[in-house]
Structure formats: structure tokens, C-alpha cells
Batch of 2 targets.
Target 1
Amino acid sequence: MEKIISEIKNAADKVAKKSNEIYEFSKVKLNIANVKSEINNNYKLLGKTVYEVQKNELSDDADRIEEIINNIDELNEKLTELLSVLSTYKNEKICPKCNKNTDKDTLFCPACGYRYKNVSVDDDFYSVNDED
Ligand SMILES: [Zn+2]
């Protein structure tokens, strides 16, 4: 009886873990969409600022342009980070050498031949069904 209870508890834990992962996954995807649209907004702002500076010959506004460029750089860094988080949810990994996505269990990068160390296979990461 106790074994059954602990099995039920285990299954419940797994379902909870999985739904939490799905929640985190959509949260990361939403963040990526937000960061991408923020990058686009900054590009637009940059274009508008450059236009105004050129047209009105406002040399003082060079600082504003630099600020926007820095913003875009920061957002791009954030985007790279989020994409790497997303790839772990998708059972993928990113090659540290060439940044290409590959399957999580791949031993060598198909693009550059980088050899992955410590390939760990986490089978129940995405499956809820238990066979034992
Ligand atoms: Zn590679």
C-alpha cells in the first residue's frame, strides 16, 4: 500500500514538474518576443534620431545615438541568453564554439566538430508516462 501511495505521489510530482516546465517554457518564449520587439523599437528610434540629427545638424545629439546603440547591444545579449535557455527546454544545446543548435544527445557538433563533454541523457525530462 505504501508503495502505491509513493508511486502516486511520484507521478503527481512529475506532472507538477512538467507543467511548471511548460509554464517556464512559455514564459521564456514570451520574453523572447518582448525583447525582439524592444530591439525593433530601438532600431526605429535610432533611425528617427539619426534623421533628426542629420536634418537639423544637432551635433549634441550624438550621445543619444550612442545610448540607443548601447541599448540594442544589451538587448541582443539578453536575446542570446534567452535563446540558449529556450534551447535547453527544447532538448537542444548550443555549441560553445560555433553557437549552432544541436540535439541534446549529440556527441560532436555537426557544424564544427566540437566534442561535447559529459553528455547526460535526461529521458524523463519531457515524458510523464512511467513504465516501472
Ligand atoms: Zn560547433
Target 2
Amino acid sequence: MVRKILQMHKELKDIGWNEEYVNQIDKFSIKQLYKALRVDYQKVEWRRLTCNNAACPKWIFISYLALQSRLLTRDRLATWGCAEDVHCVLCGTEDESHNHIFFRCLFSSQVWQNVLCWQSIHREARGWEEEITWLNAQCKGKQTRAEVLGWHWLQMFILFGRRGTNEISKRSQEPLQCWQKRCT
Ligand SMILES: [Zn+2]
């Protein structure tokens, strides 16, 4: 306990909150102290895709990993010697990478394209980087479309979690049918 108090005393001194400074303060504010203690990190570009999103926490967590390219896709597993076959479980045409599994795969691109059409957005789905940048710009504000797009973006991660299972097995069902089944 004493050690923690001494450690906090040192931290306060480091940020300039010494006895002289504290005596000068008319009214103590915990908010002001919190701001002083908090390190100012650079804000990530994709924060709007995960922050204040009404989707379930599991999707948000998977999305958070995906945005940092940390999901256990087959191409990553192969670099660690944990996967022999790196082909996509769903289409089998390309290596299973973040770029492929969410926007390039025949299965996921059809789902995403239908979500865009449903929102009256007529554009071709592009690669991972372009779609993240575009989505981030679209998810500004609290308009219904922004919320719907953000929500569906996270639903895309069901594809990752469910790929290879009986529910979404290789070419077993039409992508949209499968998607509608998951969303109802
Ligand atoms: Zn694929």
C-alpha cells in the first residue's frame, strides 16, 4: 500500500503535479488529473467501426482483432507452421488472408455487395484497405445508414467464426441464404 502511494507520488511529480502546483489549484478536479495522467495516444483511423457500435461485444472484439490483422487466418497460421493448406475454406481459390476472407472471397463479397445494394449504395466491393477507409468515412455521425453499415460490417465477422462449420460449409449453401439465416 505504502509502495503504491509512493509510486503515485512519483507519477504525479513526473506530470508536474508537485506540492507547489497542487497548492496553487483553487478547485481540485478529478477530470483534470485524469487528463494529465492519461497519455495522449494517436487515434486510430478505424475507431468509428468499433466504438459506439450497437453490435454484440463478440463481433466488436473479433473486428478489433481483424482491423489489426490479428485473426488466425490460414496464411498467418502457415507462417508459424500450424497449417498445411492455406486455401480459403469457403471458395478454395485463393489463400485465406484478411483481405480475401472479408472482401475478395466469392462468398463474403456477395454478402457485402447485397448489404451495399440494400442500402442503395452502388459500388463494387474493393480490397481490405480501401473498404476499411471507405467504411470509416461512411460511419461518421449517427445517421441510420451509418449505424446499419457499421452493424453489418461487424456481422461480416460471423463469416470468419463460422467458416468451415456445417452452417457455412464449402459451397453447401448460397451465400445470401446462409447470411439471412444467421441474421434472423
Ligand atoms: Zn474464399
